[in-house]
Design goal:
Helices cover 36% and strands 26% of the residues. By secondary structure, it is of the alpha/beta class. The model has no long low-confidence stretch (mean pLDDT 97).
Length: 338
């Protein structure tokens, strides 16, 4: 199969891991990068041997023959860049969060559909090796039908050091880490029926909320507590791990610190460690996140080649709906029916 030609739009912090992950796969050819700051585009192009750089997305789309673009730029650019690519007949991959508003996300879907182009969202957390292993345990039936779960991402990691723009977001943790956490809940347990959300701002030097707790009733009856915080000073700093406890009628499965997966039944507890894949370019401290980008890209590539992908725009729109339903619930102090 002829390699798919693509361009990366945005050469900031995350592009280094995204491009490196693409380099692990066959069937793609990165031909150009864009950044509004030419020095940043040049640096990434030199690092990854990309032949051409652009400081105009329109110029890039006019000059290059592309199969898809991978948008890794600021969330406010996701809508205009997606519209431009779709109108040029180019498939789109967009980093999460999908858009800065529910209306923008819907417009992205409509534009790609009207232009007969595919939209994928790069939602990689569900592709983390420990979370895939936990899903297999649930599916196996060893703990029986699940009835309750807690999905937790609570940390004091100084996330604003690497991404200072996050401190200025009016809507922070639910759009940033909540997009991941709520997508994990959907991946593991299906769709939510109702939710109730509470938020707080503990760090007075930021604009948006840095704590959110969400109680969901899923369509299958399971009660799911999703908790997220960047203000939690804990005995053990777990960033960037997601900790998950699932309780079922016959037992429980617990994804805990250091990727330990513990399965408990009435007879015994068994334990295993699910380590992420090792690549030379990953930061060892964040390997569980960085390595998952490869698996996410592989699955999206399958979709671009005509197969089935998990993180389509249509699927991720349901996660976006949950994020904004959380904001509605927090503002009104009411339970929201999805």
């Amino acid at each position: 199969m002829k390699p798919l030609r693509f361009a990366v739009i945005g050469t900031g912090f995350w592009s280094n891991y995204q491009i490196a992950a693409w380099k692990e796969l066959q069937g793609v050819d990165l031909v150009a990068v864009y950044n509004r700051t030419p020095e940043k585009a040049k640096a990434v192009a030199m690092k990854y041997n990309v032949p051409r750089i652009y400081t105009s997305v329109d110029e890039l789309l006019n000059n290059e023959s592309l199969d898809f673009v991978d948008i890794i730029s600021n969330v406010d650019t996701h809508l205009p860049f997606t519209l431009s690519a779709a109108k040029k007949g180019v498939d789109v991959i967009c980093q999460k969060p999908m858009a800065p508003s529910l209306a923008d996300a819907e417009q992205m879907l409509i534009s790609c559909k009207n232009n007969n182009k595919s939209l994928f969202i790069h939602e990689n957390f569900r592709w983390q090796a420990p979370i895939r292993a936990l899903k297999e345990v649930i599916t196996s039936g060893v703990i029986g039908k699940p009835f309750k779960s807690r999905v937790s991402f609570c940390s004091a990691f100084p996330v604003f050091d690497n991404q200072p723009f996050l401190a200025k977001l009016e809507n922070f943790i639910l759009t940033d880490i909540g997009s991941h956490v709520l997508d994990i809940c959907r991946f593991l347990f299906g769709e939510a029926k109702t939710l109730h959300c509470l938020t707080q701002r503990v760090n007075k030097n930021i604009v948006g909320e840095d704590v959110a707790n969400v109680l969901m009733e899923m369509e299958n009856g399971l009660h799911c507590i999703a908790e997220m915080s960047y203000a939690s000073v804990l005995e053990k700093e777990t960033f960037p791990q997601t900790l998950i406890l699932v309780e079922g009628e016959f037992g429980s499965v617990n994804l805990t610190n250091d990727f330990e997966l513990r399965i408990t039944t009435r007879k015994r507890t068994t334990s295993s460690f699910i380590q992420p894949s090792k690549f030379s370019w990953v930061d060892p401290d964040y390997a569980v996140v960085h390595a998952s980008i490869v698996d996410c890209n592989r699955n999206i590539l399958k979709g671009l080649q005509g197969g089935k992908s998990e993180t389509t725009g249509e699927d991720n729109f349901k996660t976006v709906q949950l994020v904004w339903a959380c904001y509605e619930s927090a503002a009104t102090r009411q339970t929201v029916f999805i």
